[in-house]
Amino acid sequence: MHISIVSSITLLILISFCVTPKKMHIFEIIFIWLIVWLLTHPLAWIIYVNLTWIKVSTKLADFSIYFFDRLILSPLLVVIFFEVSLRFNRKAEKWAILLVAILILMFTEYGLFKMGVFYDVKWNIVYAFIENSFILLVSYFLWMRFRRKFI
User: Fold this and answer.
1) Which of the 8 DSSP states describes residue 87?
2) Which pLDDT tens digit goes with each residue over 1-29?
3) Are 9 and 68 in contact, with CB atoms under 8 Å apart?
4) The whole model's pTM is what?
5) In whole angstroms, what is the distance from residue 122 CA to residue 126 CA?
6) At what angle are helices 2-19 and 74-85 packed, to 10 degrees?
7) Are 56 and 48 in contact (CB under 8 A)?
8) 3-state secondary structure 97-142
9) Which end of the chain has the smaller Cβ count within 10 Å, N or C?
10) Whole-number Å distance between alpha carbons of 90 and 86
11) How far apart (Å, rounded) are the C-alpha atoms in residues 149 and 140?
12) What is the C-alpha separation between 57 and 116, in angstroms, rounded?
C-alpha cells in the first residue's frame, strides 16, 4: 500500500516537473541530480549504518520505498527548488526557498518514519535539519560554480 502511494506521488511530481517550462539547462539538471544523489547515499549510510541513528527496514516493499525516496524523489525535489530559486532575484527569497526545501525534505523523511520504512533509534529533528541543510547547501554551492563556469 505504501509503495503505491510513494510511487504515485513521485510519478506525479516527476510528470509535473517534465511538462513545466524550465530556466535550467538539461546538463544543470543532470549535474544537480548526480550531486544530490552522490551526497545523499554516502551521507545517509554513514548516519544510518555506522552511527545507527536510523535503521532502514529489511522488508522488500519498504526498502523499495526508501529507494524511490533517495534515488528519485529527493533529487527531484532539490532540482525543483533550485529551478524555483532561479525565478527570484533577491537573496532573501532564495534563502527562503532553500529553507522551505529543507523543511519539505525533512517532512518526507518524517513520512518515511510514519510509514515504517525507517525505525527511530536516535533520530531527532536537529540531525535531520543538519543533514538536509548540508546536502542542499553543498549542492547549491556546486551548482552555482557549475553555472558560472559553463552556462
Assistant:
1) T
2) 788 888 888 889 999 999 999 889 999 99
3) no
4) 0.88
5) 11
6) 30
7) yes
8) HHHHHHHHHHHHHHHHHHHCCEEECCCCHHHHHHHHHHHHHHHHHH
9) N
10) 10
11) 14
12) 7
From the list 12, 18, 10, the residue with the least C-alpha distance to 83 is: 18
pLDDT in tens, 50-99: 777 777 888 888 888 888 888 889 999 999 999 999 998 898 998 999 99
Rounded Cα distance between 136 and 150, Å, is 21
Residue with cell 517550462: 21
CA neighbor of 33 nearest in space, from 59, 68, 72, 69:
72
CA distance 151 to 92: 24
